[in-house]
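U., I forgot to send this yesterday:
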Amino acid sequence: MDEFTLPSTEWDAVIVGTGVKLSLLACALSRAKLSVLQLDPSPHYGSNETALSLSELEEHIASLSSPTAQFKLHSTPVHRDRDYTFTLAPHLIYWNSPLLEFLRDVKMTTSFTWLPLGSWWVWLSDEAVKERGTAKSGGLEGAMANLAAGAVKAGGTVRKKAAWNKNRSKNSAPPVTGALEALAAGKPADEQPASTWGEPSTSTSAATLRRHGDLREVPCTVEDIAWSQDLEGQDRANLGRFLRFIQQSASPEPTSGESNSSASLLAQNADTPLTTFINANFPLPPATIASIHSLTLLPTPPSSTPLHLAVSRLKTHLFSLGSIAEIRSAAALTLSYGGSAELCQVWSRGAAVAGGINILSCDVTPEPLPASSSDADDRIPLKLSTHPSTPITAKHLIMELEPSSWSEESYHAIYLLSTQLPPLFQKKLSTDAVSPAAVVVTMPPDQDAKTGLGNSTPIYLQIRSSATGECARGECVIYAVTAEEKERALLKRAVEMVVEAVDPTTQTGKGSEKIVMSCEYASGDLKRVGVMKGAERRQGELEKVVSEEVREKRVVKVRPLKRDIVFDEGTVEECRAVYERIVGTREGFCEPPPEFVGHGEEDE
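Result:
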């Protein structure tokens, strides 16, 4: 490319990468009036959280040069290349997440298009549902309210007796302005609908659980539990008691001198596997435990998932449930046009609007300064691949940790289908004003192959409709993930099983005929491209030309974003800490300068 003139050769911060965290930092530091240069060796914003068209995805998978990375067109797409936007970061964002709280505080919610996730689904055969397991009663038996009393009575009675809803505010109904509308209007946090987990539905009909063959809706509200045909009377009681345990364990210690038995029990069993804990305290059949675990979206099976991790995820899910006025059956949202890739785009643009400079297809190499330079002890010398004749210096160099620091591996696949799978995107409650744009399906561990898969860890499918802008009408996109390399081959079969169960036009054994495109890759493959490809080289060059003292003072490294289905909740806090290190305070983090208000930013 032609070498254009940089506005400066001295920068307060040079940021290498345009991923979620680095783009947030670029925006925050630029808004704090620092001079910011943000670079990325890739031609696309987002680094490893980017979004790509169909042809770009094919090129990207080929560039990984890995046996685990494959791209295949099973049939010729009938729509244009630009009709597709596939993301490497299809995160879901819970309503009560730190990210949404932050975006409300800095008045950036209107920069995005928010869409609701609908129900969670789990694949359980009749045989699996009938299995009773080896649970024994004990633990908290009798210590908590028993949901069974009256739980199978008429729907109206059931809705009035949500045991885990006891003592919650009766004035927690959302305001007239709905939750999604409030987001779009940039309402402050104190004007958002309060959490209404367990609040009775205003629907005039029972919220019965839906089923498509062996694909079953996960029960997580009082109506679901009361009307589930898969639960026996005592199962309903124990499930209700377990959900009440989740609620009480989140409450602060009572001030009256009485201990919080739920919080104490959680502390005592923090590392106990979820299955072991439930069997000892709230005996439930294996299928119900699988349904509970599916709400956590954790990569380990319930038999090895530590209780504290499961409870943390369950709290987030359950306390977000019922908060979105337009779709009270939803707990989470997603971003249209590429998931978290949209965060990268908006924050990088925000940095540019505030005076920062973004350069794509640009790499950086640390270079030694002349011995006579007065900056040798205070700045980092750099050379840009796009401006080899214009050396620059940075007061701070910000980048991701080297790939060698990655410890967790996951295996991903993206599928484009020629069917909409409409039954999955129907409204659950008659009061829901909008339809979900995405759903989550879990294939629970099934080592005995009761479902035909034989997987040892959960397989998760996030199914997204054309409403997300990721595919054309009449199609849907499925993002699949597993934690086990040996089970990569099961992802495609899991997709076929869901298609055969849900799509009325697909015969058993013919699910593969609906797959237009498939691609596979491992999280470790992403170390080989873009900003990660040169990370080890940059670190080696830094060690050669910059003293350890200066590196410790001037080089800042952030953790790569977790390759998780749920948006990394530590993202905002980690970026605040980096901001404080550079600016000297957390005050004003990413807040728009006064001159921006009324010029594209949200007004009060």
